[in-house]
Amino acid sequence: MDSEKVVNMVPKMKMSKSFITFGLVIVLLVILALDAFVIVNAGQRGIVLQLGAVRPIVLTEGLHFKIPFVQSVVPMEVRVQKSQSEQTAASKDLQIVTTTVAVNFHLDPIQVNKLYQNVGLSYGERIVDPAIGEAVKAITAQYTAEELISKRSEVSAKIKETLASKLATYYMVLDEINITEFKFSQEFNNAIEQKQIAEQQALKANLDLQRIEIEAKQKVEQAKAEAESLRLQKQEVTPELVQLREIEAKIKAIEKWDGKLPNVTGGAVPFIDVNSGQ
């Protein structure tokens, strides 16, 4: 009886093992199928590693096939990235300048595999930030502190040119650079303020001097005009004009007289020749 049970159990055990084996095969196939495909998202590129070695191909956006368990894909961002930092440097006149710089850059989509192979994923700390600092210091040293302010666009253009060359060595492209702020020492700021005050005072003094000169010229011209007027009047005086002025004066005196003689005695009574007006 026991032997019969054992005989009956053998086929069942074989079936169970076959079912388990079939299940394992299915699971393995599913895993292989899932690991055989990779999706590269928008704005990224895929770096293909085959047993740890970087392959000379770059996967673009979309679905791609890879060898399961042999190849792996590392995604890398190729969109525009931003790096902002403060860089302290010395100007041409040895003033300490702290420059706030904002840099926009992106990785070269075609050669990101070389960047990954030579630098890795920490390219910002290893390459971008040091390159920004070196470019800012190199260009800042070519200008005085005042020129850094007055020639800001020119300084920015030179920093951009220098930084673009450095980043291109590591397969990165510089898009834009913006100098958001220049900071100087308090002593330099005070010196600039005093210089502006002196320039304003000098300008005011110059304007006052010009005003005084203009007023003096106006007075001279006015005196010349008055002298010329008197000269012309003097030329026009004739005996007939003198006699006319005397007659006009006598007429005004008669018009003002009220017909009464003065009450003061001891003096001569004024005589008015009425017929002389006829």
TrEMBL record:
Protein name per its UniProtKB record: Band 7 domain-containing protein
Organism: bioreactor metagenome
Record keyword Coiled coil present: yes
CDD domains in the cross-refs: SPFH_prohibitin
InterPro entries, alphabetized: Band_7, Band_7/SPFH_dom_sf, Prohibitin
Entry keyword Transcription regulation: no
Coiled coil: 195-233
Keywords for the protein's UniProt record, in alphabetical order: Coiled coil
Domain Band: 35-196
Gene Ontology CC: one annotated term: membrane
One Pfam family hit: Band_7
